[in-house]
Design a protein that fits this description.
Protein name: Flagellar biosynthetic protein FliP
Number of domains: 1
Distance between the termini: 74 Å
Radius of gyration: 28 Å
Transmembrane segments: 39-66, 87-104, 181-206, 218-239
Pfam family, one: FliP
Shape: elongated
Keywords: Bacterial flagellum, Bacterial flagellum biogenesis, Bacterial flagellum protein export, Cell membrane, Cell projection, Cilium, Flagellum, Membrane, Protein transport, Transmembrane, Transmembrane helix, Transport
Membrane topology: Multi-pass membrane protein
Helix content: over 70%
Order of helices and strands: HHHHHHHHHH
Largest sheet: none
Structural class: mainly alpha
Number of helices: 10
Mean pLDDT: 76
Length: 243
C-alpha cells in the first residue's frame, strides 16, 4: 500500500510529460538516373547475400566435412555432450578459415579488392569471385556425384569443368563432403569399437552383466585418445584431406 502511494506522484509526472516515441517512415522517391536504380539493386543484393552468408559458409566451404567428423568422433567416444556443440562449432569454424584462407585471399585480390577500388564492374567482380570458389569445390567433388546431379537436373553433359552449372556443382560438392566425412568417421569408429568389444567381453566373463560397459569403456577411450594425441591427428588429417 505504501509503495502504491509513493508511485502516484511519479505516475502523475509521467502523465504530464509523455515520452516521445520515434516514428519510422518508408517511402519511394523518383530516381534521378538509371544508375541510382542500379546502385539500389546492388545494395539490396549485397544485403541479401549478407543475410544468407552463414548458409553459404556451411555449403560452399570445408565446414560441413569438419563438423560432421567432429560429431562422429564424439559419438564414437561415447561422450554425447562433451565437448559441447559450441566448442566443436567454434573449432570447425577456425579450421574452415585455415583451409579456406588461400581461396578467400584469391577472391579478394582478384574480385573484391579491384571492385572496391572501382577498377572493375560488379558483374566482373562476381565472375572473378566465383572462379577460386568453383576451383576449390571442383577439386573436392567426386565425378560420380556430378554425373548424378547432371542426370537429375536434365542438363547436357558439359564439355569442360567450367561448363558445369553452379547449382549442379554446389549440390555435388555437398554430397561429396558428406560421403568423405562419413568415410573418415568410419575409420574413427574402429579403435573405439574394439575397446567396446574388449570391455564387454571382460565384464561378461566376470559375470558383471548388470554393469553398463559404457561406464568402463569411456575412460579407456579418453585415455587412448589423449595418449595418441588424438586432436592433433584429427585436425591434421582433416586439413590434409583437402589437399
Amino acid at each position: 500500500m505504501v509503495l502504491f502511494l509513493l508511485a502516484i506522484p511519479f505516475t502523475a509526472v509521467l502523465a504530464a510529460d509523455p515520452i516521445p516515441f520515434p516514428a519510422f517512415r518508408f517511402g519511394m522517391e523518383q530516381a534521378n538516373s538509371p544508375q541510382d536504380v542500379a546502385v539500389t539493386i546492388q545494395i539490396m543484393l549485397l544485403m541479401t547475400f549478407i543475410s544468407i552468408a552463414p548458409g553459404f559458409l556451411v555449403l560452399m566451404t570445408s565446414f560441413t566435412r569438419i563438423v560432421i567428423v567432429f560429431s562422429l568422433l564424439r559419438t564414437a567416444m561415447g561422450t554425447s555432450q562433451m565437448p559441447p556443440n559450441q566448442v566443436l562449432l567454434s573449432l570447425a569454424l577456425i579450421l574452415t578459415f585455415y583451409i579456406m584462407n588461400p581461396v578467400f585471399t584469391e577472391m579478394y585480390n582478384k574480385g573484391l579488392g579491384p571492385y572496391f577500388e572501382e577498377t572493375i564492374t560488379f558483374q566482373e567482380m562476381v565472375s572473378e569471385v566465383k572462379k577460386p570458389l568453383r576451383k576449390f569445390m571442383l577439386y573436392n567433388t567426386r565425378k560420380q556425384d556430378v554425373r548424378t546431379f547432371l542426370s537429375i537436373s536434365g542438363e547436357a553433359r558439359p564439355k569442360t569443368a567450367d561448363d558445369i552449372p553452379d547449382l549442379v556443382l554446389l549440390s555435388s560438392f555437398v554430397v561429396s563432403e558428406l560421403t568423405t566425412a562419413f568415410q573418415m568417421g568410419f575409420l574413427l569408429f574402429l579403435p573405439f569399437l574394439i575397446i567396446d568389444f574388449v570391455v564387454a567381453s571382460v565384464l561378461l566373463s566376470m559375470g558383471m552383466m548388470m554393469l553398463p560397459p559404457v561406464m568402463i569403456s569411456v575412460p579407456f577411450k579418453i585415455m587412448l585418445f589423449v595418449l595418441v594425441d588424438g586432436w592433433g591427428l584429427i585436425v591434421t588429417s582433416i586439413v590434409k584431406s583437402f589437399g
